[in-house]
Amino acid sequence: MPDTRDLVDAARSHTVGIVGGGIAGLIVAWECAKVGMTVTLWEAADVGGMTRLDTVGDTTVDVAAGALTRNAAVDGVLDAFGMTGELVPAATTARWLLQKTPLALPESPALGVPANPFASEVTSIIGWGGVWRAYLDRLKPVLTIGNAENLGELVRERMGAKVRDRLVAPHTRAELRLDPDGVVIDVALPELNGALTRAGSLSGGVGLLEQPAPPLGLSGGVGRIAAALRARIGELGGTVYDHARVTSARQTGDEWTLQIATADAEPGEPAQREATQGDAAHSEATVQHLVIASDERGARELLAAHVVALPAETATEQTVVTLAVGGVPAQSIRGAGLYAAEGDAAVARVDHVTAQWPNMPRGSGQEIFRVTIPGHTMADDRAIEASISAIAAAYAADARVLDARVERFLRAQDRAASGHADRVATIRASIAKLPQLDVVGAWVAGDGVAEVVADAIQTAETIRRRALFAG
């Protein structure tokens, strides 16, 4: 067993470079800095990524990730920063269909699959023809050998196309960014196959499932975690750069040499724009361990010179508009918000943030909404216009924009996507051949804060063992 002093010296002598300052990169940096390793993180835009805070109107709000799923990894991080007691359950989880005449979606623990096809919310959306077709599920023999794999196929076969298209698809597209036919049941709904077999029908199986606990927010915003991580990394001697883009990574013996384009800001000091080739100072850094923690597209750019034949990119572009809105009633007449009825809708979902989290401090007469728009093609003013139009129509209100922020993200494929597990296994196997390099983030861990945090902690442990115990 190595002497403790030797381990401390070994930790201090090892340098770790992290490319990407979202929650994954911050977790790795923190975990490595905790044991004394020399850590530097470069983020091309704003540190925190999708898990950061901004001010809209008079309100501090999460720019994208506004809720948490708990697991051991998340609980450990919350406990380390004294935030466990500040978790807040959502006041409402009800959703409506975003269409000309909004309709309430039935409550379901299974991505919209109804337990009772005769419920009024179901009949209003799929009509009586769809209801009687869904009822045939109760009369059909159940599959008793093997598990159904594809959610869309199962729903269509058991309960009909209208249930799949009008009830399930709005949920899978809004929550997973997947068509129902692309959803693997045992990942998205791991208890459904067993419940189906026990009940003898799909709707009966859904009836056996418990409604999930409401999403959990954090008082003051989930983005507080990223801010706390950044501060702690600095306290431990690490360095975090905003608006510093790593443009290339080159192997030089047992080290990695990075080329960096940095906007005009000091370490830890926000810059006014993203660093680009044309307007930035250029520098070079050498590290022993390289961790790529950027989104999928950025990671691929750095890996292109080192890894051949990675599976095709699966990330999707998304524009998120956060608005302070006047003229909309504070009461949650549309629950937590609305999901688009059609897959090609200009607006994919509307989240009524202050209905979900009514204790959020905000200015008088202001309601906060987060609107998700597929793609990156809309200019900011057009995205804001589309967002307020959707809100006004959905709430039958004279809604007006008091303030707005527009963000653009590259969203990773959900873990429940067909082929995701094999694809990630191929990516990890290719990257494992490169010495002293690791990849973290949603594109390999799955698109959820809990999955990303757990994967980043596991990766940091691998790096520490590799550095301190030579493997």
The biggest sheet amounts to: 7 strands, mixed
CATH fold assignment of the largest domain: FAD/NAD(P)-binding domain
Q: Treating each run of at least 4 consecutive H or I residues as one helix, how many helices?
A: 16
Helix percentage range: 25-40%
Average of per-residue pLDDT values: 92
Protein name: NAD(P)-binding protein
Pfam families: NAD_binding_8 (PF13450)
GO molecular function: oxidoreductase activity
InterPro entries: FAD/NAD-bd_sf (IPR036188), Zeta_carotene_desat/Oxidored (IPR050464)
Overall description:
With 471 residues, the chain is of the alpha/beta class. It folds into three domains: 4-51 and 221-311 and 415-469, FAD/NAD(P)-binding domain; 90-105 and 211-216 and 316-411, Protoporphyrinogen oxidase, mitochondrial, domain 2 (Polyamine Oxidase, Chain A, domain 2); 108-208, protoporphyrinogen ix oxidase, domain 3 (Orthogonal Bundle), CATH 1.10.3110.10. Helices cover 36% and strands 22% of the residues. It contains 16 helices and 19 strands. The strands form five sheets. The chain has a seven-stranded mixed β-sheet with strand order 7-6-15-16-17-14-18, with helices on both faces. The protein has a five-stranded parallel β-sheet with strand order 9-2-1-13-19. A hairpin with a 4-residue loop joins strand 6 (95-98) and strand 7 (103-104). The radius of gyration is 24 Å and the shape is globular. The two termini are 14 Å apart.
